[in-house]
Amino acid sequence: MSDFAELSVEGKKYQLPIVVGTEAEKALDINKLRDESGYITIDSGYKNTGATKSAITFLDGEKGILNYRGYSIEDLAAKATFLEVAYLLIYGELPTTEQYAEFEGAIRRHTIVNEGVRTIFEGFPVNSHPMATLSSLVSSLSAFYPDSYEGKDNSDRHIIRLLAKLPTIASWSYKRAMGHPMNYPKNDLDYCSNFLHMMFSLPVEKYEVDPVVASALNTLLILHADHEQNCSTSTVRLVGSSQANLYSSISAGISALWGPLHGGANQEVIEMLEAIKADGGDVSKYIDMAKNAKTTGFRLFGFGHRVYKNFDPRAKIIKKAADEVLAKLGVNDPVLEIAKGLEEAALNDEYFVARKLYPNVDFYSGIIYRALGIPTNMFTVMFAIGRLPGWIAQWKEMRAAKEPIGRPRQIYTGATLREFVPIENR
Ligand code: MLT
Known about the structure:
This protein has 19 helices and 6 strands. The chain has helices at 33-37, 73-79, 82-91, 97-109, 115-121, 130-144, 155-178, 191-200, 211-223, 231-240, 246-257, 265-278, 283-291, 293-296, 313-329, 334-348, 350-354, 361-371, 379-400, and strands at 4-9, 12-20, 26-28, 57-60, 65-68, 71-72. Helix 6 (130-144) runs antiparallel to helix 11 (246-257), helix 7 runs parallel beside helix 8 (191-200) and helix 10 crosses helix 19 (379-400).
């Protein structure tokens, strides 16, 4: 294959270097295109545009492949802890026993949050959306740790703080919404068990973490840990490219994830299921509405994926976890029965199969979180806890590569130059 592609425009020819990645992905390098030709490219939604080269996550949308640093999501979900995967994403290799003990131990020692952050939290309205408080409080951490922006490269300490404190901060929203006392973390518990303790234990009774629930949460967090240059990760990289500190960059990623077209999709799934239940629970009626979306305007959330063209490898794994959790907890929930009816149709009805509208990771994650007793408006918070190590890894990679500040071009389509008209003459 030639090392260059040739572009011919206005009678002139330009050579565009061809870049080939380790998984044989190919790109045209247009770094010099505007200087040489005066042309830029335009690609709304960046569907055909690579923003960077990255060694963190590889996904193949056609083959349904998702690998973190060369390890398959199937292997990691079955054999690793979430913090092992976090270490792998951030530092590039699976930790040795000693490295893991140091990393996991440091996180256990930093789970408590400065009481000043809680004071800020208590200033929010009680019914605040947990993503509003999470993004705000994560950004506020830069004020509590000014060495994060005073030009010192001690990001490892801030990486530990973020990984350690995000679950603690996340649990506050739920406890206050329930009118329950907030729990302090327990440093004798592992990461997932500690979060479940902070979320569900009450001073009036002994709380035992169900190992099946903790294992399902571990799997869910691993499946959400990174996903190459998705909207929120690209946001973290873009904000970080201005040399903004880690807390501010992650806060921006949390805000991007909140959107219903991105991380908010799992909340939309349950709200869709609850609406179907409220309307009588007739799954076939809504299947027909989805097939006639042009006239009904009904959109199925949790099916298909903008990147995966055949199936979402994470959905296959999470479906198994969902079945295990529902069986173990003996959950009898009409909303989850409706979900199974939609799943059955999506996996067997030719209309959905032909359009690759299979249940995706958001469909099943919403079901599990609901079965675990996590409230719907906390679902995207759970996605953020999972995605945090990926955001951190991508931010760290971008900084290490000393990438320039991200500043996309545009094609101007507004009014051309015109004279100012005084207001009395308009
Ligand atoms: C994700 O995991 O970030 C979502 O699947 C969205 C995406 O990758 O675009």
